[in-house]
Amino acid sequence: MLNDIDLSRTDLNLLVLFEAVLGEGHVGRAADRLNLTPSAVSHGLGRLRRLLNDPLFLRTPKGVVPTARATELAAPIAEVLARVRSVMATAAPFDPATAVRRFAIGAPDGVSAVILRPLLAELSRIAPRIDLGVRQILPSPARVWQSAIVDLETHAIDIAIIPSDDIPPRFERRCIYEEDFVIAMRLGHPFARDPILERYCDMQHLVVSHSGDPYGFVDEELAKQGRARRIALTVPNFIFALAVIAETDLISALPRRFVAMHAARFGVLSLDAPLPLPGFRLNAVAPKVAMMDAGVAWLFDLLAGVEQTAQKHHSGPPARRRQS
């Protein structure tokens, strides 16, 4: 029974330690995050294991992995800590103009490369002592963003920005902007002179794929028309893609806003795609329980206005329309 447990033996910091180890998957990195020594973290884990009567984390060559019991406890512990943080925050209401705090945001690099410039400019103006940590998050196989959900629930990040509408109901979701794809290439590329579908299929293509899988959503659309293309290269992120196509004859389907913001710096141009390509929404996502934290709620609202700010700050030209 809960009321039979001697809570005087329980140190709330042990739950913070649990959260950090679960989020980092490594005792040393958790120690760095908490400004503790690895031996102090190991000692705390020993106390927590005795309290909960479970090993909680098992060592591997790359760090530690949670036991089934630890995985089961992750969400309840995150909720307890969020409520405690909310209670503590009421002692000193969150004021962005004076707050000293660091938030963690997770996003694909093609998203963070769009939002960071206007976001940092806004923070400099209204919240000069707020710091950010940006973690790159990547889709699982079949373009599922489960890793972002895990990072949110383990408090590894405060807010995720992902191109998915498949968000569990225990999370707050808000669209910050809508995106579609253009075809990017170096300035002077011969494809730009006659960007029809037949020539598009004849080109050599670059695909952004963290796993190295060369088959993407463009290939699905081409297959519907009985067509295919050659994927000459895959690279793991969007910024690298721009750097490569700027120096080669490869072309690539890339997010429109991302290309518009960075095209001039890399010396690339973009064209509307010669076939219909699906668009998508970029959603800011945070656990509903975390939104009780006034600081997280404030940053969530700030991100929700990033579309208008990003529009003011992008420096590249719009994609060229194909001639009919």
Walkthrough of the structure:
The chain has 12 helices and 12 strands. With 324 residues, the chain is an alpha/beta fold. A 5-stranded mixed β-sheet has the order 4-3-5-12-6, sandwiched between helices.
Short description:
This protein has 324 residues and is of the alpha/beta class. It has helices at 12-24, 27-34, 38-52, 68-89, 109-126, 146-153, 197-202, 217-224, 238-245, 256-266, 294-304, 306-313, and strands spanning 57-60, 63-66, 101-107, 130-136, 159-162, 171-179, 181-186, 204-208, 230-235, 252-255, 268-272, 280-287.
| DSSP E strands, number | 12
How far the N terminus sits from the C terminus, by CA atoms, comes to 74 Å
* SSE pattern: HHHEEHEHEHEEEHEHEHEHEEHH
Instruction: Give the biggest beta sheet.
Output: 5 strands, mixed
Ranges with pLDDT <50 over ≥5 residues? none
Q: Averaged pLDDT, please?
A: 88
Domain HTH lysR-type: 10-67
Protein name: DNA-binding transcriptional regulator, LysR family
Family: Belongs to the LysR transcriptional regulatory family.
Organism: Mesorhizobium ventifaucium
